[in-house]
Amino acid sequence: MSQLKIGFIGLGYMGRPMCHNLIKAGFGVTVWNRSRPGIEFARSHGAVEASSAKEVAAASDIVVTMVKHGGDTAEVALGHNGLLSGARPGMILIDMSTIAPAEARVIAVRLKEGGVLMLDAPVSGSTPRAEAGTLSIMVGGPTEAYERALPVLQSMGSSIVHVGEENGAGQGAKLCNQVLVLVNMLSTVEALTLGAGLGLDVGRVYEAVKDGAGGSWQFENLGARLLQGDIEPGGTVETVQKDLDILMTQAGELHMTLPATSMVQQLYNAVEAAGMGKKGHQALAAAYERLTGVRIADHVST
Amino acid sequence: MSQLKIGFIGLGYMGRPMCHNLIKAGFGVTVWNRSRPGIEFARSHGAVEASSAKEVAAASDIVVTMVKHGGDTAEVALGHNGLLSGARPGMILIDMSTIAPAEARVIAVRLKEGGVLMLDAPVSGSTPRAEAGTLSIMVGGPTEAYERALPVLQSMGSSIVHVGEENGAGQGAKLCNQVLVLVNMLSTVEALTLGAGLGLDVGRVYEAVKDGAGGSWQFENLGARLLQGDIEPGGTVETVQKDLDILMTQAGELHMTLPATSMVQQLYNAVEAAGMGKKGHQALAAAYERLTGVRIADHVST
User: Fold this and answer.
1) Mind listing the pLDDT tens digit for each residue in A90-132?
2) Which of B136, B256, B294 sits opposite A208 (nearest CB)?
3) What is this structure's pTM?
4) Distance (Å, whole) CA A182 – CA A205
5) Are residues B160 and B181 in the same domain?
């Protein structure tokens, strides 16, 4: 049993299994959440409930946040009854939400003024990997905090890389990861739609190409779902659009051209126009279905 | 030692190691090639030289072609002193070149009239995998021919999928594979350029994301080369442009929208405009370098 006392805030579909893995690893965990179901989940697995972020901080050496928006992280960290108001000097905040690198830097500066160190540590991998404790975690922030927090991160992820000592470096790597995820999703749907349009059995095409030079995690995993006509989430189109907003804002600030990512964003707008914002991000195929009249799952015979 | 007698035509940078693997597998191999160096290579490893494609056919049960263009396959198969003029009924042609599906179908029909069966069997994987005998091979054509040719294919590849009984099905799968390869290359250069533009150590970014949901064969292998500033081929930009021509012609014939592939083609035009047509296909990064002023390899410190 570890002596480190952990706080956890943000018990959504990702936060719950991550918190559960901390409890299974033997950490004492104190939780707070905006809504009851997340709290009830964590209590049923042995977590202690607090009445505010401030109370979580007062009970914890390290606090993990897994919330939706940069504004949520700032509110939980710096707002009324927030973490900073209850933290002892030396506390570490590990923000595992996906937020803009610049937001992460600003929050870190404010926390440091109060003696709290921050790591920005966004994750890649959806719910199954959160449950298995095999997330990829990209970390930015001071080495001192990284080294103290490592056992906590290791309870939730299997690939943990300290990208840089600057706060925001983890979020920057996450942006690069999202470019890869989303543009590889684009290649997946474009290739499978082409195969279907050519009149091929796309199940055979999938087998023929998945282990070759065109292979990717997206193709292997989400491509397989598309063969079944399965567009349930995983990560939703709406969450993807949030990431794309961060990406394109960042690109604008850097005066950086991201043509492929921009195309993906436009195609996801079409997916949302089709009323599929709550579907999984493989619903990108729906944009191609509209453009081509071809549905991938109609061309699988094996 | 197998009793099957094999012919091999097209001893370029891919054909040579493929032919060598057939010899190593114990097949007797007769070769012909347009230029001498390929013939000398094959002879030095034990192949017998013929003076024409016709002579190769006369000496062989199965002939493999690995040439550059659809027109080359047609010339070798159907032209003056071509395979058809020397083949015994029941001979099988395995065309492993990348050509348009429609061209493969037309050649197969003409060969069948002369009693020759054809498989279109393009490959994925560049020279190292050709040397290791671990190519991915996508096969279209009659099951009877596929079953007889399988031991030959197994000497050159480790993933062999019979995509369909129609000729052109292998070439169709190859087109899907090329969409994946090229658009995953696009995601690789866009993501690494973004990381460099954010001021991150892209070596760390690479480590942080390569095994996650953004991972791909292109990122892992060609991304690693870009970190070293290595843009030597592998497959060249010029070869990629040939594949893109086939793809976009096919898309036009099908009235199929391939927006990502089209963008890749436009960016490769810029790479050729920069005089880099003979470089490897990861030289796509040069287009981003021009658009952003950021060179990936300048941002690697680990």
Assistant:
1) 999 999 999 999 999 999 999 999 999 999 999 998 889 999 9
2) B136
3) 0.95
4) 21
5) no
Instruction: Please name the helix (run of DSSP H) or strand (run of DSSP E) that holds residue B234, with its range, or none.
Output: none
CA distances from B110 to A237, B30, B87, B144 (A): 49, 23, 13, 18
8 Å CB contact between A115 and A86: no
Same domain, residue pair A18 and A160: yes
Note the Cα A204 to chain centre separation in Å. 32
CB A139 within 8 A of CB A160: yes
Same-domain pairing of B122 and B183 = no
Overall average pLDDT of the B101-113 stretch: 97
Give the CATH number of the domain where residue A223 resides: 1.10.1040.10
Say what the pLDDT of residue B234 is: 83
Residues B205, B79 share a domain: no
Interface test with A, best of B124, B180, B292 (most A CBs within 10 A): B180
Count of domains forming chain A: 2
**Residue type for B59, please?**
A
- Give the domain extent around B38: 5-165
Cβ neighbours, 10 Å, residue B180: 30
In the three-class reduction of DSSP (H, G, I as helix; E, B as strand; rest coil), residue B65 is classed as strand
B contacts of A213 (beta carbons < 8 Å): 124-126, 136, 177, 181, 217-218, 221
Do A59 and A126 share a domain, yes or no? yes
CB contact under 8 A, A200 and B169: yes
Residues B273 and B132 in one domain: no
ipTM attached to this prediction:
0.95
Asked whether the beta carbons of residue B194 and residue A256 sit closer than 8 angstroms, the reply is yes
Cβ of A211 within 8 Å of Cβ of B187? The answer is: no
Residue B302 lies in a domain: no
Alpha-carbon gap, residue B271 to B266, rounded angstroms: 9
- B2 pLDDT higher than 70: no
Residues of B tagged active-site: 174
Amino acid identity, position B221: N
